[in-house]
Amino acid sequence: xxxxxxxxxxxxxxxxxxxxxxxxxxxxxxxxxxxxxxxxxxxxxxxxxxxxxxxxxxxxxxxxxxxxxxx
Amino acid sequence: xxxxxxxxxxxxxxxxxxxxxxxxxxxxxxxxxxxxxxxxxxxxxxxxxxxxxxxxxxxxxxxxxxxxxxxxxxxxxxxxxxxxxxxxxxxxxxxxxxxxxxxxxxxxxxxxxxxxxxxxxxxxxxxxxxxxxxxxxxxxxxxxxxxxxxxxxxxxxxxxxxxxxxxxxxxxxxxxxxxxxxxxxxxxxxxxxxxxxxxxxxxxxxxxxxxxxxxxxxxxxxxxxxxxxxxxxxxxxxxxxxxxxxxxxxxxxxxxxxxxxxxxxxxxxxxxxxxxxxxxxxxxxxx
Lengths: 71, 287
Fold this sequence. Notes:
heterodimer; A: 71 residues; mainly alpha; 66% helix; globular; B: 287 residues; alpha/beta; five-stranded parallel β-sheet; five-stranded mixed β-sheet; 10 helices
């Protein structure tokens, strides 16, 4: 449930620039209003992106290419 | 097989910050696909893709990721094998007659091997296969660092390939080095730089740039609450900077370009005319 709230909150911020501006002005107020779990709020305020991504789903790797040295 | 039954492949990119960077065309293709295969960076993007189309298969397990417990991860098999498995998945689904959409993080054709390979294999067999552009980390870098690559040029290399090959540099242009997070790893089985690779990269760059030349480690924000990493240090200090899998290095020009009088004169111009015109064009024309 708390993961769904976090996911919905992030989707809202991504697609609603006015809400994003509100968030940037007062992050805690906007997160509280959205019901974001305090532990998730702490991750956001601490810029713990690895922690957030673990909450959002399984680990992922960004590396999708091999340099020309192997081709 | 008739064309009505024949499968097709469309390769698309989510951009770096998926929910904000996807094009309308990309979203439409995802919605209408028989099958979506996705290689994206986080569960937020995956859950959003599943809202667009419930028939999403995550390609991430092909990596066989496992934590190495020493500040990085290892892979159960070589990335080359992983990419081959992803290609096979995309090709087989298309051959089975499905309209397939393959979703990759960023731009699907920039630093993505399996996208190009799958398209090539399917086109060879006579199947429709196309790629749509996406927003790459490079695009984010230009926006976040305020760099216009058309000012005096900008070269870019995969960082390990840059170390492994003789690469003449034009220090009047910008330089971007990618995939610092796996610098020096020839095994394709670990997700961290080889120890001592960063000092070697610094040594290589010092052949062309002064020790105090500013260089920037850049990471685009991938979540709506994320911060862009812009960490600028002197080149001599670069080896002390912690790299992640998202780290990219930007090296700004170290000198002004020198005009080439021969070609300027052959165009009937003086050097002053040519270089003034160049500045005017660069500062007034968009693209």
